[in-house]
Write the structure tokens for this entry.
Amino acid sequence: LLAFRKKEKEDRQLELRKWIVRARRERAEKQHFCLEKATDLKENDVEWLTATETRGLIESGDLDPSDHVVRLAKRCRQYGRDERRANAITEEFYDEAFEAAEKIKVNGKKGGVLAGVPISVKDCIGLKGAYSTGGLACRLQRRDTEDSLIIQVLKSAGALPLCRGNVPQIMMIPESVNHIYGRSRNPWNLRRTPGGSSGGDGALVAMRCVPLAICSDVAGSIRIPAAFCGVTGFKPTSTRVSNKGNMRPRKNNKAGTSVPIPAAVGPVALTVDDCALFMKAVCVPEMYDTDLNIPRLPFDTTAYQSTKRLKIGYFFTDGWFEPCGTAKRGLQETIDALTKAGNECVPFEPPTDGWFSYGLLVSINGAEGNFRSYKEALEDETIIPEYNTLVTASDMPNWLRWIARKVIDKRRGHLLSCTRSGGVSVWDLWQEMAALLQMRSDWSDAFRNAGIDAVLHPALPLPAMPHGLSGNLTSAFSYMFLANMLLWPAGVVPVTLVQEEEQVYPKGELPDNQRDYLADLAAVVMHGSAGLPMSVAVMTPAFQDEKCLSVMKEVERVIGFSARPTAYKE
């Protein structure tokens, strides 16, 4: 029986490798006739255009949408597809976008909110004619036969899908690498990751290959790449934008953990206005008349454009993973700039710390035990090395966990205590659900009692990581998980760059319970990190998306971050 199963697995892996070869051959052989067309706009002019500016110029007649598609398509091919550079693109739809742009010309000013705006679409979001793989070779069996609802709505608004952004295998690590399309690289430093799971799209926006990317976020997957790549990212309230028709990177498309912590569809963009433009385009009857689980809430432009004085609560650390010096400086500079502009910034005491919130997330996601649903999703494909630490920890026998917790550091010991080999009981899972509900209630009460408009905090404690390190440093993303667990809207805005003297992570200055192996890895991340972007994060309670974006806009205005990556051109 074991020999039969071994042979069966070997045959399946051979089949998957053939599918990978076929998909890469199809991509290489696909012709893009629009790339042969000449354009008259200079390279530097292309880089300056945001989604909002693109739409305005097309509406005024000062920009030909077809020509602009050609310009960005050439840029995508030069920088986005090149496997020696960013390697951010999985599939290209340049001619399809060109044909759609030609139709936009007929409508002119009557076009939709995003008429003529080229976009990239994350690999997992249903797009007719594309593979939705989630980084899994088994999903190369067939292409999507129809658009997901969000793409239908965006196309109705005039958006032009230009390409697909790369993702990690199984989409559960903040690093975009898989066996199909390889490893994506950060435009600021090609030796570092653009993040994940929307890493390819984050890189594409940072390189100005597209002004807007359509992504998803279940544990920071929009905001991590945006922060690593120095652009803006926004996760709407978790149930405000439809996820209907998008793939789930689990076997048979069944992902039970999406019930307590659902994935949210949202934008990665060059500006906050572009994020608001996305929300205006999708919060329309076409979406909530088709997906009846989505509330009928049109985007409130007046609320977004409000100029009233803000009261913003802030915190510097979650007590679990201390931010590096750049992250703290960036937050302080943002607080100072907001205050100088007439807003009020006050300390906010989080009702739960990272030890609790991150531990709870690990308990919920790992409740089944042994990485089961993730392994099943692979359908015998070899798992990438970035998951090795997570798989080893999940498979550790329960008797050995007790011993390991006695000899390793407190943080890793804490995480080992959050899961069990073989999974937890239904009763234990219900207790975790109850703890999640209580956490949401506690945060809601704390926010209301503080009388604030938003919460401001470090987006991440570290800048973009060297390739291959993210699987060992998932603990560093605890700040990102908060909004997903609370179901709150949240966004990130770039505010600064790592300075030469900040390329350190002094272990001796950390709290005693953080002077450990994870701190050593953090020091590795900081070494050679000068010039990398870092961001702040904004959160507001559920369905206050417009307020969240308004605060992000104010941060963007008072900071005026304007740095751009150049490493991808080298």
Remarks:
- The radius of gyration is 23 Å.
- The chain has a mean pLDDT of 96.
- The chain has 21 helices and 13 strands.
- The longest strand covers residues 490-497.
